[in-house]
Amino acid sequence: MQFRSIIRIVGLLLALFSISMLAPALVALIYRDGAGVPFVTTFFVLLFCGVVCWFPNRRHKQELKARDGFLIVVLFWTVLGSAGSLPFLIADNPNVSVTDAFFESFSALTTTGATVIVGLDDLPKAILFYRQFLQWFGGMGIIVLAVAILPVLGIGGMQLYRAEIPGPVKDSKMTPRIAETAKALWYIYLSLTIACAVAFWLAGMSPFDAIGHSFSTIAIGGFSTHDASIGYFNSYAINMITVVFLLISACNYSLHFAAFASGGVHPKYYWKDPEFRAFVFIQALLFVVCFLILLNHHSYDTVYEAFDQALFQTVSISTTAGFTTTGFAEWPLFLPVLLLFSSFIGGCAGSTGGGMKVIRILLLTLQGVRELKRLVHPRAVYTIKVGGSALSQRVVDAVWGFFSAYALVFVVCMLGLIATGMDELSAFSAVAATLNNLGPGLGEVALHFGDVNDKAKWVLIVSMLFGRLEIFTLLILLTPTFWRS
């Protein structure tokens, strides 16, 4: 294990993160809301800590191995989440506890969108911008950004990339060099953010709200600058724009790259992808079910309003964004539970969505079908094919291993919450909301997490990290094999 090289890289990444504090400080200066001091203070503190980690180890540039990359990713997300809490702790408004500051920071960076802060409409603009910006930063992953712009990471970049990018297939690269791949991801990410912000502005949002909500929409985070979330704007146009960009962001970014790489738009690349087709089918099925049930229960005055609410909430919850326009927890009970379970599927691999990812659910389904066939024809040999290509047994085993680990982490976290005194429904939905990086839950956590006890919040912070780092990246550090030389 190259510990000094790891400390050097974490120091560099921490110094890089410190620069992000200047953006909300600038917002505070523009709006003159007096909230700039916490961000300037945090900038100097993090820069100093980054230099302290980097300077003594600046000459240690050994090649990173795979396990070094996993340790860097876990270390940095832990350090980053902790560092991100400093402005919340220093600021006078909101006045939050240490636990709440850590919870809000980790929720933002992991794009979970679960908040402990109420009264968002009365917060300084700088704080509101910071929450949105943290989500945007965490959406694609600060480490991928670092690989793109810090050549000092050298040829070990692939180890960081593999540990960071969500999804079961992490060895494929869109471009021959890993730095070019990371840059391509960020160009797409930035372009989508700008397009989303412009669309929101044209639909009637203020420039501040348009930029802030574009950050959390493209990151599929779910934070808003208003307590009423997207429902604050009461606009069909804004709802539809949100739906469109959530669906785009929940698709594999390598598909976006392939569709636009050769100039122009080539939709064929999307429809050729079996995961994309499965994703579209799931979204359509969920929408039809929600729409028909809302109509049957006469939940809304008009058919168009039922259509709008069903479409928005279906996409928002199933892609793990967690935006709300209405109290979906007050719908007929079947629908909130259905949507909560849909968040376990989440977005596509290689997207900013949470959950287990569509490709894994597709592979689990194909494996289940194969086992049924084997019961009928025990001696027959069946192969699992995706997109016309046969998958190796190693990939199938890895998906089953991931599913088992996911279920284990879920059960342990849920039992931990119940042990702190939370009721069963709230505990189940809180873990689902954090492990799937969703945000809103049911019961006690339907609106916010401010009333959750402190011990439960720390359990949920761990759950967010497990969800963001795709279980194995964090779980592997708990195995004795990882630490053996």
TrEMBL record:
Q: Which GO terms describe its cellular component?
A: plasma membrane
Which chain regions cross the lipid bilayer?
A: 12-31, 37-57, 69-90, 133-163, 184-203, 236-255, 276-295, 333-353, 398-419, 458-483
The protein's topology relative to the membrane is: Multi-pass membrane protein
Location comes to: Cell inner membrane
UniProt-listed Pfam families: TrkH (PF02386)
* Keywords, sorted A to Z: Cell inner membrane, Cell membrane, Ion transport, Membrane, Metal-binding, Potassium, Potassium transport, Transmembrane, Transmembrane helix, Transport
Predominant localisation class: membrane
* Binding-site residues, K(+): 111-112, 220-221, 320-321, 437-438
Q: Name one GO molecular function term.
A: potassium:chloride symporter activity
- What does this protein do, in the record's words? Low-affinity potassium transport system. Interacts with Trk system potassium uptake protein TrkA.
| Similarity remark | Belongs to the TrkH potassium transport family.
User: What name goes with this protein?
Assistant: Trk system potassium uptake protein
Q: What is the species of this protein?
A: Vibrio ouci
